[in-house]
Amino acid sequence: MDLGISLWAMVGFALAAYAVVGNDALQTLGTFINSNQKLPWWALFLFAATVLIVVFAFGYIQFNGDPSWGRLSDTKKYPVFDVKWYHVVPAFALLLLTRLGIPVSTTFMVLSIFASIDGMTSMVQKSLYAYVVSFVVGIVLYAVLAPTIERYFMKTPEKAQKPFWILLQWLTTAYLWGVWLIQDFANIFVFLPRDLTPFQAFAGVGVILVLLLFTFANQGGPVQKIIRSKSNVTDIRSATFVDFTYGSLLAYFAYMSTTPLSTTWAFLGFIAGRELSIATIDKIRKPGATFRIIGMDAFKAFVGLVISVGLAVGLPRLAKALAEGQSTAGLSGFFG
């Protein structure tokens, strides 16, 4: 059956979907996977898949077939393009960086080449704001939690797997996963029409679910190592606090405006503030080591921004130069 979508658009969609569920999704599902390692991966997948289907269906109906929850509705900032080969290159680069375990921003890597200058500026400004706000929240919140609740969690690991905490963590994961999807569906569906037919929507969600299944079967993949390097995230109680706070931050940023933002930057900001407070108060590692971890994560995110801007600016010019070169060669041959 003809989907009514070009081959390059379908390739870009598939690459972006795989990179997003293998990279950004671990911000929301990483602690969930870590703190539920005793359960079969397929049970965790079914839970995440159910939330995804519900969130997508609600947004699809509410926004009249727009799968991005209105994040791409401003066509002056995010014009509709006939997808070409160079639109797909950033998604492929993101896939490679994901396999290397580098936490780059899919928002910048994928959306930058589709955005106007105003659109790119808005994304960067909102993402910087998100990083700073999340960093401050992480510091202040865990300045209170680190010497009290977090310290108690670290001393009583045998009390973690209680029915109350298991239920609460699954509920907070559903909350965080749903809010995150509202933000990041735009990064995947930017390759497709802004008003999908029901068949296109069904096919698109099916592709995402298959890739999500692979991520769960692979226990999260390389990016999961970054989650495991943070303090006390395998404790289901601690993970619940992380998920609820991060989800509430994303809900606040979504309420601010429909401008896409880098959820990676918001996540790294919050985790950095959390790590700084825990390390300072509990002295679980030397300050220098903590700053190196925070700095390295921030540096990787910055590198991703530089690469994405470079690709967004350079690839269309390269494509134009190649097209002009071919045209010139063709004319030379004609008059030769």
Task: Report on the architecture of this protein.
The chain is an all-alpha fold and 336 residues long. The chain contains twelve helices and no strands. The radius of gyration is 21 Å and the shape is globular.
Order of helices and strands: HHHHHHHHHHHH
Helix content: over 70%
Question: How does the helix and strand content classify structurally?
Answer: mainly alpha
Radius of gyration, taken over Cα atoms and rounded to an integer in Å: 21 Å
Total DSSP E strands: 0
**Measured distance between first and last alpha carbons:** 45 Å
Q: Give the CA-based shape.
A: globular
User: Biggest sheet, open or closed, and with what strands and sense?
Assistant: none
Proportion in β-strands: under 5%
Average pLDDT, to the nearest integer?
A: 81
How large is the count of helical segments? 12
Low-confidence stretches: none
List the helices and strands and how they pair.
Blueprint: H1 7-22, H2 25-34, H3 41-62, H4 85-99, H5 106-111, H6 117-155, H7 163-189, H8 198-217, H9 224-228, H10 236-256, H11 263-282, H12 287-335
Helix pairs in contact: 1-4, 1-7, 1-8, 2-7, 2-10, 3-7, 3-8, 4-12, 6-10, 6-11, 7-10, 11-12
